[in-house]
Amino acid sequence: MSSASSIHSYGPYSFAWDVSGESPFLNQQIQEWSKTKPLDHVTILHYIPITHSTVRKVHALIQGGAQVDLLRGQGGPSEVENTCIDRLRKIGLKVFDNPTEITQSGKEYDYFLDCAGRLSSIPGKEPNTILTPKYGYVELTQSGLQYYKDKSLPVISIDTSKVKLLETILGTGEGIYRALHELVRIEEVYQIAMKDLKVVLFGYGKVGTGIARKLHENIAKVTVIEKDESKSNIDRAKRHFVVINSSNKAAVKEAIKDSHLIITATGIPDLMSREFPEKNGSYDPVFTDKILVNAGGLKEFGPTFTKHPRLILEGRAINFGLEVPTNTRYIDPVFVLHNEALLWIRNHEISQPGIHPVPPAKDALLFAKWKAKWKDNLDVIEESN
Question: What is the DSSP letter of 103?
Answer without folding.
Answer: H
